[in-house]
Design goal:
Shape: elongated
Structural class: alpha+beta
Distance between the termini: 40 Å
Strand content: over 45%
Strand order of the largest sheet: 1-2-3-4-5-7-8
Number of helices: 3
Order of helices and strands: HEHEEEEEEHE
Number of domains: 1
Number of strands: 8
Helix content: 10-25%
Radius of gyration: 27 Å
Largest sheet: 7 strands, mixed, barrel
Length: 221
């Protein structure tokens, strides 16, 4: 039993060491991030949904609109060593929703004449975050885990536009706008996912010399 335990421990340690080796392409260039480098990534989920909606007959025109409920997420990593990075994140979502309502024109002798009242809702969702990230595995696709701190702010404003102007015949009380207030958030969360590192050419790596190396990454959560 003791001998078996030592064999398993040796196998596990061998896996850890081999899993952390940098990955090279056919030209011998290391394409995984190294100490002192930075990498940029984005959340691929909205684009995967777009591709999936292309094959869904229930959707008219699939879009990748980055709204307050479906924000765009961009992250960057600064490599503290070959397998651990300081992680930063920004998430931005902006949305506008318009609704038109037809109402009778005040003062018109034609009962079928109408004007439009518009309700427009502007929303924004912005999140900033920072944390630590560590990789496991080797090759272009590597799993990662870690933790981060996030600060978010959500805003909403509703604006009303009326088709009937105020007059002696139309003295109704109106609201021009409404703002329910901002919502602030503070979050501690664990992260788990995988990275797909793109393949740089030899020329592009030579141009990104010194402390300015940058390797693009697609992030899938």
């Amino acid at each position: 039993m003791k001998k078996l335990s030592l064999i398993l421990l040796f196998t596990f340690l061998t896996y850890i060491v081999s899993a952390q080796e940098p990955f090279k392409n056919r030209d011998g260039l290391i394409i995984t991030p190294e100490k002192g480098e930075m990498s940029l990534g984005f959340d691929a989920v909205p684009f995967l949904k777009f591709i999936g909606n292309l094959f869904n007959p229930g959707n008219n025109i699939p879009t990748t609109n980055f709204t307050a409920s479906n924000p765009l997420t961009i992250s960057s990593n600064y490599m503290l060593n070959d397998n651990m990075a300081l992680r930063s994140k920004i998430r931005i979502g902006l949305g506008v929703n318009k609704t038109d309502t037809l109402v009778a024109r005040v003062g018109s002798t034609n009962p079928n004449e109408t004007v439009s009242n518009e309700t427009k809702i502007n929303t924004s969702n912005i999140t900033l975050g920072s944390g630590l990230q560590k990789w496991r595995g080797k090759g272009r696709v590597r799993g990662y885990y870690g933790g981060e701190i996030l600060f978010s702010i959500y805003t909403e404003k509703t604006t009303y536009t009326y088709g009937n102007a105020l007059s002696s015949e139309n003295q109704n009380t109106r609201n021009k706008s409404a703002r329910p207030g901002n919502t602030f958030g503070f979050h501690l969360k664990g992260i788990l996912g995988s990275n797909i590192t793109s393949r740089p050419s030899r020329a592009s790596v030579q141009n990104l010399a010194g402390d300015h190396k940058l390797k693009p990454v697609v992030e899938v959560k």
